[in-house]
């Protein structure tokens, strides 16, 4: 038997010098949880191992859609006089990413192998699935600040994916592709110099394809139950998750003019309490409206009475 390490053809013939019945090796390629558009050509090696430290690469071949993801290598010996019994293994070595081939680790895929034998035919199945990087959602922090008054209610925040590749994010089961975090009013009950701050985090695990990529998320405050006197922060904070070499890092970004943009280690939101007396006159009549209106009516009545007295005086002079 010869070590055919440098052979790069889909079939290599062996000399069956041990007079054993030759065998056939079938290699099949399968995909698991990978859309058809994402299924790309792969390079697979058929390796052999025998006695006396004998080993080598018998064949290197590409599996792709054109060959229906399968190949057969026929007439392989199960033993030779030099190396005794021969065993064969299949290893996926490269995956086509774009116009070039990358190693399995670099490609964002992982492979698992299955083996069966029937009537002298050995079948190997290589199954690829996406390899994921996990991010504990608790690494995404929200900072809440109240100014002017202690919090009167809890504050809730929602995290949603917003980038073009948002469909690649794997959310916790039953999350509805969003996460919610809460800052309780108790955490914001004691003011220092007129304000109080508290942090919270999201719960669950987010998963991303292991290949390098950038993912963006929006964090917003839910202000549907805004209380009278409070001016809620309506800004959106952008959370960026950058996946590089199997690691995920989190950063925060703010829109121009966001007063909280100096906070770089959290998605920051500030709500301010404004006294009712300084609020603009909008909506229906308030107590302040009635007081102003009542005073106006009283002044009008005095003017009318005074005007009537002057008119009567003029009448007497005629």
Automatic annotation (TrEMBL):
UniProt domain CNA-B: residue ranges: 25-103
Domain called Streptococcal pilin isopeptide linkage: residue spans: 140-273
SUPFAM superfamilies linked: Cna protein B-type domain (SSF49478)
The keyword Transmembrane belongs to this UniProt entry's keyword annotation: yes
InterPro entries hit by this protein: Collagen-bd_Cna-like_B-typ_dom, Strep_pil_isopept_link, Strep_pil_link_sf
Keyword Transferase: no
Transmembrane segments: 290-311
Designated name of the protein: Cna B-type domain-containing protein
Native organism: Bifidobacterium eulemuris
């Amino acid at each position: 038997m010869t070590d055919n390490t440098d052979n790069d053809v889909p079939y290599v013939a062996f000399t069956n010098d041990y007079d054993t019945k030759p065998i056939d090796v079938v290699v099949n390629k399968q995909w698991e949880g990978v859309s058809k558009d994402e299924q790309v050509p792969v390079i697979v090696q058929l390796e052999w191992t025998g006695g006396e430290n004998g080993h080598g690469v018998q064949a290197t071949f590409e599996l792709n859609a054109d060959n229906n993801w399968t190949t057969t290598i026929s007439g392989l010996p199960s033993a030779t006089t030099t190396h005794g019994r021969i065993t064969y293994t299949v290893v996926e070595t490269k995956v086509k990413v774009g116009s070039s081939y990358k190693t399995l680790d670099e490609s964002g895929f992982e492979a698992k192998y299955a083996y069966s034998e029937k009537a002298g035919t050995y079948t190997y199945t290589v199954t690829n699935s996406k390899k994921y990087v996990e991010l504990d959602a608790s690494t995404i922090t929200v900072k809440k600040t109240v100014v002017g008054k202690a919090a009167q209610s809890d504050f809730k925040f929602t995290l949603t994916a917003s980038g073009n590749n948002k469909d690649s994010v794997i959310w916790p089961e039953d999350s509805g592709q969003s996460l919610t975090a809460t800052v309780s009013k108790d955490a914001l009950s004691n003011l220092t110099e007129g304000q109080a701050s508290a942090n919270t985090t999201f719960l669950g695990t987010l998963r991303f394809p292991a290949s390098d990529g950038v993912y963006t998320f929006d964090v917003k405050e839910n202000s549907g139950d805004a209380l009278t006197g409070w001016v809620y922060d309506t800004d959106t904070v952008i959370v960026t998750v950058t996946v590089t070499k199997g690691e995920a890092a989190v950063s925060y970004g703010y829109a121009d003019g966001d007063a909280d943009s100096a906070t770089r280690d959290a998605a920051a939101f500030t709500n301010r309490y404004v006294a009712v007396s300084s609020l603009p006159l909008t909506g229906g009549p308030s107590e302040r409206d009635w007081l102003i209106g009542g005073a106006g009516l009283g002044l009008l009545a005095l003017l009318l009475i005074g005007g009537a007295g002057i008119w009567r005086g003029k009448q007497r002079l005629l």
